[in-house]
Design brief:
- The protein is of the alpha/beta class.
- The chain is 48% helix and 15% strand.
- A 7-stranded parallel β-sheet has the order 3-2-1-4-5-6-7, sandwiched between helices.
- The longest helix has 29 residues.
- The protein is globular and about 45 Å long.
- The two termini are 30 Å apart.
- Bound molecules: nicotinamide-adenine-dinucleotide.
């Protein structure tokens, strides 16, 4: 489904991002993952290569703090462009949480969450979309959250960032639709990754009660929807938010 497509995935060395990278590689894509740890990146590249359709596929990793505009711009314009002169698919997946009630939230926790989840998508998309417009094709997939749709006590920073991603995506979808570029969001519910394993057993069982499908999601559940949005199957789909949450938000 993604034969010869060049795909960049931020935060692609763990969790949902890694699952997307593995599934996309199994469908023939060349993959560039961006993340913060060299070690995690190396391990992810090995796993992605094993899943790839052919050893000829380019599977690489770059260390990059996606919240830093200059680092992102330099990386894309001086390095990634040599491997991927055309980027067919950009997945903005990097994210962090710094939870706490607003009344006690530190300014740094607000700033970090907005920078990594929201400012990052400005940084990466701004540099990638120009070439996509020239090519008159492209897919941009932003990994938001159901928290961006319905909020969650203790996550004002994260909810603001994830809602912001949705607004960004709808506005950009309108700007670039005439250039044949699709911009969509996925809003996962509760997915088993490093981000959710820190939740206490009590919180996890309370969450399970709210999921009609009676299980937490796995990264592959999200990756499959991302594959649809990355592929030609979704060529007439733009500005949408697809929830992947076992029916939690209905
Ligand atoms: P995760 O912690 O495994 O993945 C997050 C990735 O982002 C990591 O690989 C991390 O290295 C990377 N990252 C963090 N800061 C970065 C930075 N400054 N620059 C580059 N990379 C950075 O957790 P996950 O659950 O796989 O999260 C992936 C995305 O899915 C996030 O955007 C998260 O908000 C979103 N999400 C997750 C869930 C869930 O239940 N797990 C639910 C809704 C949305």
């Amino acid at each position: 489904m993604l034969h010869h497509k060049n795909v960049v995935i931020t935060g692609g060395s763990s969790g949902i991002g890694k699952a997307m990278a593995i599934l996309f590689a199994a469908h023939g894509a060349n993959i560039m993952i961006l993340g913060t740890s060299e070690e995690k990146g190396k391990n992810a590249v090995e796993a992605i290569k094993q899943a790839a359709m052919s050893p000829k596929q380019c599977i690489e990793y770059r260390v990059c703090d996606v919240s830093n505009f200059i680092s992102v711009e330099n990386l894309f314009l001086q390095d990634i462009v040599k491997q991927f002169p055309i980027i067919d698919v950009l997945v903005n997946n990097a994210g962090i949480t710094r939870d706490g009630f607003l009344i006690k939230m530190k300014e740094q926790d607000w700033d970090d969450v907005i920078a990594v989840n929201l400012k990052s998508i400005f940084n990466t998309t701004r540099v990638v979309v120009r070439a996509m417009m020239r090519e008159k094709k492209g897919k941009i997939i932003n990994i938001s959250s159901i928290v961006g749709l319905v909020g969650n006590a203790g996550q004002t920073n994260y909810a603001a960032a994830k809602s912001g991603m949705i607004g960004f995506s709808k506005a950009l979808a309108q700007e670039v639709a005439r250039k044949n570029i699709c911009v969509n969001c996925i809003a996962p519910g509760y997915i088993e990754t490093a981000m959710t394993e820190v939740l206490s057993e009590d919180v996890q069982s309370a969450l399970l009660q709210k999921i009609p499908m009676q299980r937490m999601g796995i990264p592959l559940d999200v990756a499959k929807v991302a594959l649809f949005l990355a592929s030609d199957l979704s060529d007439y789909v733009t500005g949408q938010v697809i929830t992947v949450d076992g029916g939690m938000v209905l």
